[in-house]
Amino acid sequence: MSVACSPDVHVVEHFLDGALRTSRTMIARYDAVLPTVDGDRQALLTALRADHEAHASALALRIGAGASLITAAAFDAEPSVKELRKAESEAHKEAVDQCVASEEPQAARLLASIAASRAAHRELLHG
Amino acid sequence: MAEPTAAPADGLAAGLAAEYALIYAYGVAGAEISDDGARSLAGDAEYSHRDLRDELTAYMAGIGLIPPPPEAAYTMAPMDDEGAAIAALVALEDATAVTWRTVITTTTGDDRRRALDGLSNAASRAALWRRWLGEVAGTTAFPGA
């Protein structure tokens, strides 16, 4: 990657790397919970997982070749909807901080939508 | 697509104007919504937008900006029955998300954080409405886009 040629680009790429890692971690979290639910709840979680897949694809497209090296982080939370909601809340806050720190408009807009999507997930997982 | 050119203060004002319109809309829609679940959703959403409005006006005043006042009335889509009222609210939540997302690139720091609050709230309310209307999740992967 050529990110070292510009300090600004390097900073933004760092944020995108972190966002992609979190998206892939969220996908792994959903994969852990999905076998434990069924019916309407399973359909909901499947749809929310698809949003994270879309986030990961968009982030990987912007990051480029290095994206394939970014993997999900390890997690040891119990596979439950309650833990998913907590993870969505934390992921939302992380994306907000990344968006606020981003200096590149396109990246900031992408991170903003990802943050909002994660906030919506948190609300849908309530109750 | 052209980059937004509004100054930061204009951006916050645009977001505030969208919140004013939504609060007005919830007031109008309330007369048409009778289902208990929908009334609960509408009540929660209206309060969330009122909270955002209050926080935003206080924030703008705190940094030396004069928050614009609301309009006396807003032109709304027809809300002749419950279905039409909820459809109008969903459309307005989506439009508010678009407004706040546009503000993202004209702001920095705490101003941008306010815009993110607005975008996240509108996206959440729209998703909850769509879920109530029967969609599996009601989400979009990229709210405001």
From TrEMBL, chain B:
Residue stretches making up the DUF4439 domain: 12-144
InterPro entries xref list: DUF4439, Ferritin-like, Ferritin-like_SF
Gene3D superfamilies reported for this sequence: 1.20.1260.10
TM helices/strands, residue ranges: none
The protein's name in its UniProt record: DUF4439 domain-containing protein
Organism: Phytomonospora endophytica
